[in-house]
Amino acid sequence: MSRLPVAKTYKLFIGGAFPRSESGRVYDVATPTGEFIANASKASRKDARDAVVAARAAVAKWSGATANNRGQVLYRIAEMLEGRTAQFIDEIQKSTGASAKDASAEVHAAIDLLVWYAGWTDKYAQVVGGANPVAGPFFNLSVPEPTGVVAVVAPQTGPTSLLGLVATVAPALVTGNTVVVIASESSPCAAMSFAEVVATSDVPGGVVNILTGSPTEMTPWLASHQDINAIDLTGADSELALACERDAAETLKRVVRPGQFSATLGSIDRIGAFVETKTVWHTKSLS
Amino acid sequence: MSFLEYAPAPESTSILNLSPSYGLFINGEWVDGGDDSYTTISPATEKPIAEIAHASANDVDRAVAAARRAYDTVWSRMSGADRGKYLFRIARLIQERARELAVAETLDNGKPIRETRDVDVPLVAAWFFHYAGWSDKLEWAGLGANPKSLGVAGQIIPWNFPLLMLAWKVAPALAAGNTVVLKPAETTPLTALLFAEICQQAGLPAGVVNIIPGRGSVAGARLVEHPDVNKIAFTGSTAVGRQIARTIAGTDTKLTLELGGKGANIVFDDAAVDEAVEGIVRGIFFNQGHVCCAGSRLLVQENIHDEIVEKLTRRLSTLRLGDPLDKNTDIGAINSKEQLDRITALVNTGESEGAERWTLDCPVPKAGFWFRPTVFTNVATSNTIAREEIFGPVLSVLTFRTADEAITKANNTPYGLSAGIWTQNASRMLRVADELRAGVIWANTFNQFDPTSPFGGYKESGYGREGGRHGLTAYLTNGDAR
After folding, report:
1. Do B439 and A147 touch (CB under 8 A)?
2. Beta-strand runs (E) in B193-282
3. Is B292 known to be catalytic?
4. ipTM of the assembly?
């Protein structure tokens, strides 16, 4: 006798909790053939703002954690994801129509990418920073620091509902930024299951905030938000990206343009897009 | 004669061999500008120096075309070693003509000869010398084995360090293999035009460096929106920086911005007080306070406030304001009437908002633009003079009790360019440096610059770095698949 399965309610992930959209709105998520999968939360402007508040509140703890600790936490995400591989393959297949082979390759790539970025946390500063040989009696050191809160539009097209999300979120986390990410609108299920992975991986609440819904509706609010330091428009179409880059100029946000980096591969430049170089001078003397 | 009086020791201007008029430097030649010309004056005397051409939008197009041609046919094909040799030549020519450049800069800008001679021009030469050596070592810049130049760089620089800002922009751009179109500030075109002569003397191929004085609203605007410019580098106000970021949205143009600041200079009660006082002076009265990274907000631990202010005003009383060409001068002229009006207006606002004003009692020359060193005490965090960049010799003094409060107050600004920390406690210095949201932290010193040391801001002070390997990467792209 077949058992009636228990369907999951897909909500948002804000500040370590799983609220519904304050707007009460949902939208249909369907398979490529039109079969109903779930009602995803359609996040509103206010949800986005709540997510920014949560992300800002989490900056001190995450950026203040040791690089070693951030590496362990990112690695833990990879471990948790590995354990749920079958679930993600299933969700990706359902929502994108990918073959089992492709879906499995995507999940494995996402896991391996997390491991790759986990290893960067305690190496990045050494690779890009260092002592500067100034012409004077000074100690002079440049180090990368996280820029703060990063808004991300995850890739919206292509079979990358999980990999695209991981490839855009993980590099921002490496140096201690916190993230508000708008997941793939058409296949949000894997993103919200990824939120469950994050929630069980010792990631402090608010470090990763995941919204589902319309990037066209939400991204402009994030682009003009006064308390966001950088915006990654990888998943925005060209019209949305143009409008948002213009809005982002008002607060001089650091902007990643669509196509600037690979949406699926690891990149040290992606880490670098969300850091500030701090240079400290100190006098040297025997007295 | 009291110990404060000196016999005048003016630097002679006879070393200068200026033309009565200057055109635009495009494709290695001097050409007329399409827009009306204007007279650049000395802000210390209001006397004319030379007639300067204004570049029109068409002139900008011509300059970009020349830069593109030079990029395609010469500069991008040249070996890094040869590019480096040109830059080494330029560095040497700057050293050889250092005295002349210092005098020209002081004449055109109004800053003391002591600064142009000892700070600006030596740093300019050092900048070219540093980046010259990078030209044939780009594969070690951290962008993989095959880094590529970007193409044509459009560069727009301010009037506060005219030749130094040129060096910060031009040296890394050329080392990385780009060609440049540079627009100097309207009030200070002179040393950029002398630099064009130096490019000729160095035999730099035509079109690699193009210098086009002009209005920001005409030449600057055209350069920013030009479709054949691959990179914009701008130093100037945050308002214009925003405009530029908006303009290039949706393009592939790369952008670095060095914008305004409202730097906090934090003095703890265990600081070496006399050194701190010198550092405060250097922080805000260097270059008449026309410094984006100036320490314009002094945060003093409450228990030493009175002592610091007393020692500071006593020290300021020994500063000499006047002829910038005089080697004894500490405080030169304000660069322009507009800037003087802006400083005056902000200082008036400071008074009307209730801060207590102290201004150096000293004679001021009749002609020219001058502002006497001014210190405001009893300043509230919300006061305009504690929030807005004044860009003049005006210091706002605030107090704090704990390190946490100092950090909070220091970071309470949309800017994030510089900060100073004065304490003899190394642990505290390092922890405070960690917490400050600013790109350059000077601990027990202030306003130090070096070509190897990255400089640039957090938040609304801009993005990108100038100096060292970091500054080089702003003109390179990763040639491999991304």
Report:
1. no
2. 209-211, 231-235, 254-258, 264-267
3. yes
4. 0.96
